[in-house]
Design a protein that fits this description.
By secondary structure, the chain is mainly alpha-helical. It is built from 10 helices and no strands.
């Protein structure tokens, strides 16, 4: 068998095991190639989707920048209007001060503050001698007399009315130079309350109002019955909601009246709502006060108790709560009305305590731009990773094939070594010289194992 060309049975078995291992390597390579093709296709789709999304995000970023610029222009216009009012107020105050100075120092006539006298301005009146009026030398020797000697003393500082007027002009010129900029001062911390805190405060105020309304509605439905308490409680909760929502909506309407697209006459329904709310507050407060001020009707007595006096000698009925507390009906009425007005006023202030529509639009646009920028950066990073995976797909395929070839070569070498080791064992164990020579001849024929079936 050693001299024949047929393979040894053991070699056939080794070749079968070798082919099985090689087939497994090829199958693993095929699976890896299929998964790699799927990943490459996903990477290509991710690149296309990322580029499309990046284009859309860039467009939205440009739109966000335009919105920010528009909001900034609106804020600058709003600041300009405020600056105009401040300048008008300052000019009005300067004119009042100017008139006061003219009335206080009539001898210091001069040009208006803030401008220098021109050549066309009339100068101070002069007499025939070229001296200003009132400064001509007097011929009366008594005008130059003095009772206190000024010899050896230092001349005081110039405190004449003209000097005071000049200091005032200089100070105002400095104020004109250091003027406020006619523009928006910039974004600050959000002044408005968070939405959740506004809702919590509204619920707290509503919880304060419900008992007042509940007690006010009890006389209409009875006290102590389940149905009456249910009706009173339902009306109390409904009244608390209405009496709190009305001023809150009015505050919202007044706050957003300057927004683009809002009705310019929005103050009319807002004030109407406040008027209705004020009237209902007065009615409900009066109703609650009357319930406290009610008097119990004394039971009718027979004629036998006529003229009976109590221990204190008075024949009057039982004193009311107002009598015991020494309160007047108007005090109690104003007490409950003020409580309802205060709670509704809190809702009104919560409606007003919001950012200006222009500032809210600017802040919202800035926040949206920041979010778009983060999304754009993340999209670019994901797109670059997908593009890198797509560009290195061929190199990774070649690396996988090279790794599979090395594994197949290693398997073949391993089984060839096993066959050679088998022949060495046969040669060492054989006692016949002919067998040893046959083994040596068979060992020189490489490869020892049959070729693979598929290759």
């Amino acid at each position: 068998m050693l001299n024949s060309g047929d393979p040894l049975p053991y070699f056939v078995e080794l070749a079968g095991l070798r082919d099985t291992q090689i087939q497994r390597i090829h199958q693993a390579l095929s699976d890896a190639e299929a998964a790699a093709r799927l990943r490459d296709a996903e990477a290509g789709s991710a690149v296309t989707a990322g580029e499309t999304e990046a284009t859309l995000l860039e467009q939205r970023l440009r739109e966000a920048d335009q919105e920010i610029q528009r909001a900034r222009d609106q804020l600058n216009l709003l600041a300009l209007r405020s600056s105009r009012w401040l300048r008008f107020r300052d000019r009005l105050r300067e004119r009042v001060e100017e008139r006061w100075l003219r009335a206080r120092f009539p001898d210091a006539a001069g040009p208006p503050a803030g401008r220098t006298p021109g050549p066309a301005d009339p100068g101070p009146a002069e007499d025939g001698a070229g001296q200003p009026a009132g400064k001509a030398e007097s011929t009366d020797p008594g005008d130059d007399w003095q009772s206190v000697s000024t010899a050896g003393t230092t001349a005081p500082a110039d405190t004449s009315p003209a000097a005071l007027r000049e200091e005032y002009r200089a100070a105002r010129r400095e104020t004109d130079v250091i003027g406020s900029a006619e523009g928006w001062e910039g974004l600050a911390t959000r002044p408005g309350l968070p939405r959740w805190l506004t809702l919590v405060l509204l619920l707290v105020v509503m919880a304060v109002e419900v008992p007042v309304y509940w007690v006010a509605y009890q006389p209409f439905h009875g006290v102590g019955s389940a149905s009456g308490d249910t009706l009173s409680g339902t009306l109390a909760v409904s009244s608390a909601v209405i009496m709190l929502i009305l001023p809150h909506l009015a505050g919202h309407m007044l706050r957003w009246r300057s927004a683009t697209g809002s009705p310019r006459s929005g103050w009319l329904p807002a004030l109407s709502l406040l008027g209705v709310w004020g009237g209902l507050t007065w009615v409900l407060g009066t109703l609650r006060a009357k319930f406290v001020m009610q008097k119990d009707t004394p039971a009718s007595t027979g004629g036998d108790l006529a003229g009976f006096s109590g221990l204190d000698g008075s024949s009057t009925g039982t004193p009311t709560l107002l009598d015991r507390l020494d309160l007047t009906p108007s005090t109690v009425t104003w007490l409950f009305c003020a409580l309802l007005l205060l709670s509704g006023g809190v809702g009104f202030l919560l409606g007003l305590f919001r950012e200006h529509p222009f500032l809210d639009a600017y802040r919202t646009a800035v926040e949206q731009r920041d979010d778009l920028q983060r999304r754009h950066e993340q999209t670019k990073a994901d797109t670059e990773r997908a593009r890198a995976a797509q560009e290195t797909a061929e190199d990774r395929r070649l690396n996988r094939e090279e790794a599979a070839r090395r594994r197949i070569a290693s398997v073949r070498q391993l089984y060839e070594a096993a066959a050679a080791r088998y022949l060495d064992g046969v040669r060492e164990g054989a006692k016949d010289v002919a067998v040893s020579e046959s083994v040596m001849l068979r060992s020189r024929a490489r490869p020892l194992l049959p070729a693979p079936r598929d290759h």
